[in-house]
Amino acid sequence: MIEKAKPIAIKNFKSINKSNDSKFIPDPYKKVASSMETQFLNFMISKMKNTINKNNPESSAVEYYNGLINKERSNIMAKNNGGLGIQKLILNQIYPPHLRNKASYEYFMKNLQPNANKQKIQKYSPDVEKKQQITKADNIQKDNKNE
User: How far apart are CA 12 and CA 66, in angstroms?
Assistant: First the structure.
């Protein structure tokens, strides 16, 4: 008798990739995407407020504090439950998923350090050049005397 084939357990690689995805995104990219989502939400909230008809115009102090409240609301909305998903869309554009691996992350962090493996560039100064020419001439004279 032929036995029925048992179903093979296939792991969902997309869900595995998503869980490890964020740890290989450098912090500067995360901050940019988060701040862009916050700015968008702040803009959206302010435009929504403008659609309401107001009978009495507000003073500049009230407008200022309403702006602060809108900014805080947008910060809370962006950080609560992963925001609206705009941050993920922005990250997909500025740091694509195919770069989200250990090698790319380590390369980014290595190059993030200031002056790491970089050649020092000296500023041109005519005085330094003259001193170098004098020391070269002195070395040539010493070599000629030694011969």
Answer: 46
